[in-house]
Write a structure and sequence with these properties.
The chain is an alpha/beta fold. The chain contains eight helices and twelve strands. The chain has a six-stranded mixed β-sheet. The longest helix has 27 residues. This is Lon proteolytic domain-containing protein.
């Protein structure tokens, strides 16, 4: 024998699974990381008491201004991220919600991820050194470059490392500094041929740059639209695709000559 549910009873029965799903979503960990603006470091100076760029085998210039590499800080791969964290990140301009797999290699332990990021940083440093010396035509002069940057992993400082090496060895090529005395920040991978690549997290990096005094931000050209999304007031975007393009743009800024590209 079948009995018919009243409308309130039917709604209650139908609503129960929905409520259960919502409760699960609220309290279940989600495959996201929450990121925020991270540290910046002047590659022309010291970081934690150690020179970031040390050069031997060639005279080194005294420089003015700063070239600041930028980072984001993300929740660790084993940090629990729940629905309220995700929703809060979506509405907070100082934070961003990113798929965990876009921040960390999938399936690796925290220790493996740290080792991976350090390998990427070492490879980036080697490529940055080769790119800078190739740009200057000094790859066969026996110049030794050591790059040290504590507690930072990944390849996104490559462009700024290369620019720092060039500034210390050659400046703007005519006795001046690449920075023109400014605080220049930026991000971007680089290969030995001087090609600049995209990195991700650019809106947060522009905020970190402006927080630490930068007025110019070098951004991979492919990420111009992302950089404009939350651009802090007083920060000028300069898109780049190559190391040569970045150097040319900085020289034009310094000397007030030529056209400086913009996003």
């Amino acid at each position: 024998m079948l009995s018919r549910l009243t409308r309130p009873q039917a709604l209650a029965v139908c609503a129960a699974p929905v409520v259960a799903l919502l409760a699960t979503a609220v309290f279940a960990p989600l495959p996201f990381s929450v990121a925020q603006p991270g540290l910046t470091a002047n590659v022309l100076g010291e970081n934690r008491g150690t020179e970031v760029i040390t050069i031997s085998g060639a005279p080194v210039r005294e420089t003015t201004g700063q070239l600041r590499m930028t980072t984001i800080e993300a929740t660790s791969p084993d940090t629990r991220v729940d629905l309220p964290d995700v929703v809060g990140g979506w509405f907070d301009t100082d934070r961003a919600v990113m798929p965990r797999d876009s921040v960390y290699p999938s399936g690796d332990s925290t220790e493996e991820i740290e080792r991976y990021n350090q390998r990427q940083m070492k490879e980036s440093q080697d490529e940055a050194t080769a790119a800078a010396l190739n740009h200057l035509g000094r790859e066969d002069e026996g110049i030794e470059v050591t790059l040290r940057l504590a507690d930072v992993g990944g390849p996104s400082a490559g462009l700024l490392f290369s620019l720092g090496i060039i500034d210390k060895l050659d400046g703007d090529g005519s006795g001046g500094d690449l920075t023109g005395g400014r605080i220049i920040a930026g991000t971007g991978t680089i290969d030995a041929a001087g090609r600049v690549g995209a990195v991700g997290g650019v809106p947060l990096k522009t905020q970190a740059a402006r927080r630490d005094g930068a007025t110019v931000f070098l951004v991979p050209a492919a990420e111009c639209s992302a950089a404009r999304a939350e651009l802090p007031e007083g920060l000028r975007l300069v898109p780049v695709t190559t190391l040569k393009g970045a150097v040319d743009a900085l020289v034009s800024l310094e000397k007030g000559t030529g056209k400086v590209p913009g996003c």
